[in-house]
Model the fold of this input.
Amino acid sequence: MGKAIAIFNQKGGVGKTTTNINLAACLALKGKKVLVIDIDPQGNTTSGLGISKKNLGATSYDLLIEEGIDPYTTIYNTKVNNMDIIPASVDLSGAEIELVQIEGRERRLKKALDTVRADYDYIFVDCPPSLSLLTINALTAVDSVLIPIQCEFYALEGVSQLVSTIDLVRRSFNPNLGIQGVILSMFDGRANLSIQVADEVKRFFGSKMYSTVIPRNVRLAEAPGYGLPITSYDPRSKGARAYMAFADEFLRLEASNAR
Done:
């Protein structure tokens, strides 16, 4: 059974979508079968992988709302071998209201994921930057949470709230939910602030913090505009090398924890 991981931080602009797309793409390049799921109404993972949100067939919206839907009808190929996506559509912005009326609304995504898990090594869910029914669906469906944290002044303000949110979902819906790890994004080694934030995150999360950091990189910012992961857009860039190193560390720790 594949491992399902939510990419989550209640603060926006910390690199959730960038991490979702590029970690998944790097793992796919290393031979892992990967599915990414976009349940953020902004749909940035969808557009960032070159998929138009207009005129799509079934999407993550249908997966959450439609009773008895075949989850396989929502899965699309991407331009990356071994990597599929369940995209978001514009309809997802109204799913929050519709879910309120549905019985078992917190477990709609889990029910669908359990159907397709055996087909993938890893499933990554890109969450909205808020605690909503969409986010609760994601945290209820997955095994663990991967937390990107931006290296800037306000990054640590919401960390305790974020951990409290994970604890709340663990107590209410998903007792096995764990923290996969914490990845620092937009790191600038020349800036004292980045180094201070890294030190604070290390003190808070300890061994859950990855040693790899993702640097500020123009090519990383450009890649979504071309609908490509960084490994396809510019495989020699600093951003591509950082995400490949992150994928290596991710798999190494996974193998170590499996022993």
Observations:
- The chain has one domain: 3-258.
- Residues 30 and 247 are 9 Å apart (CA to CA).
- The mean pLDDT is 91.
